[in-house]
Amino acid sequence: MAGAGHDAGQDGYLSSDSSFYGDTDDRARLEEEVAQNFNPSQYWSNHPYLLPVLAAESRAKAQANSLSPSKPLYNPYEGRICGRQLSEPVEDFLKRLPPLTTHANTDCPWIFIANPYARPRPTDYDQGSFMQAAEGLLEQFTEQKNGIEKSMLGKAKGTIAKKLTPLRKVLEEKLLAKAKETNFTSGKWMLFPFPEDVNEKWAIVAEATVHRELGTAAKVAPENGNGDRTPRLISVYTKDFSDIEDVKRVLERMVELGLVKRKLAEEAERGIYYKADAFTELGITSGNEWGLKPSLYASKDLLAGGKK
Q1: CA 239, CA 253: separation in Å to the nearest integer?
Q2: Over residues 268-283, mean pLDDT
Q3: Is 137 within 8 Å of 169 (Cβ atoms)?
Q4: What is the 3-state secondary structure (H, E, C) of the chain?
Q5: CA-CA distance, 211 to 58, in Å (whole number)?
Q6: What is d(CA 195, CA 193) in angstroms, rounded to the nearest whole number?
Q7: Do residues 169 and 144 touch, judged by C-beta distance below 8 A?
């Protein structure tokens, strides 16, 4: 203990001559390693994208927003083991349910987090009415499609496709109109990080969601038990697929957070896509039997100033 007292200055702090910093040879060796290996330019170019920096920015923005404590908080996942609780610090939530190692099960098919200051959907949304009407529209299109293909038997596939294209466009418009009519308007941007990146990407999304920087909620796929390197889905939700300004705002913020590239390095890179929940519930995926495009928006197009 005498040595510790000797190392401390009169103000109680360790002096630069303290053995706490190592002896002369240790300090010389470490200083030489830093001089040879540390690249200040590289460090500062990466600094804005470091997780602690992004988290600090999110906290600072939340404080700047001056959120009213009297405003009601929303959390559709309250009481569910797979969701972040209102009283649970985001850091604790991330430690409790890291997507890389959390195993999917019936109680936790997804890991969820909500923006506590925004309802995920309008209170009067009617998914049941939408599904009933939409399934009728799909059946009607299927009958039309079968009729056209039968009447054009032997024709080139391109000729048949040309005939079906306008009908398919009308079907898409009717489905989206019915979704708006029933207030079933939620949708999501979809990220697909590799497993080794999923914890870091999810942490950024979670912090930003809670601090009102992204959309209404987010979810991530837990470990499926196969131990493969299949990319994990992270969905970032917005309230209304037709609110293009809000959809684009969320995309722009994800670019700022380093989650999405503004400029793609290669033509083969596709960016990310936005899909309406209405299409998800109808099972409209890639290669669906109606030939509908599953996604509504592509980041590549929106960031370039377009809509689709």
Answers
A1: 16
A2: 91
A3: no
A4: CHHHHHHECCCCCECCCCHHHCCHHHHHHHHHHHHHHCCHHHHHHHHHHCHHHHHHHHHHHHHHCCCCCCCCCCCCCCCCCCECCCCCCHHHHHHHCCCCCCECCCCCCCEEEECCCCCCCCCCCCHHHHHHHHHHHHHHHHHHHHHHHHHCCCCCHHHHHHHHHHHHHHHHHHHHHHHHHCCCCCEEEEECCCHHHHHHHHHHHHHHHHCCCCCCEEEECCECCCCCCCCCCEEEEECCCCCHHHHHHHHHHHHHCCCCCCCCCCCCCCCCEEEEHHHHHCCCCCCCCCCCCCCCEEHHHHHCCCCC
A5: 6
A6: 6
A7: no
**Chain-centre distance of CA 147, in angstroms?**
41
pTM of this structure: 0.75
Dist. CA 115–CA 211, nearest whole Å: 7
Interior angle at CA 295, CA 291 and CA 297, nearest 5: 135
Q: Which of 115, 117, 113, 114 is nearest to 69 (CA)?
A: 117
Q: CB neighbours (10 Å) of residue 87?
A: 8
The average pLDDT across 270-274 equals: 91
pLDDT in tens, 142-181: 999 999 999 999 889 899 999 999 999 999 999 999 999 9
The residue written with tokens 């999501």 in the block is 188
Nearest to 203 by CA among 74, 54, 69: 54
The token pair at 67 is 């959120």
Structure tokens given for 248: 């684009």
Contacts of 137 (CB under 8 A, 6+ apart): 171, 174, 175, 178
The structure tokens 């009407």 sit at: 133
Kindly report, residue by residue over 70-80, the tens digit of the pLDDT. 578 889 999 99
Overall residue count recorded for the chain in this entry = 308
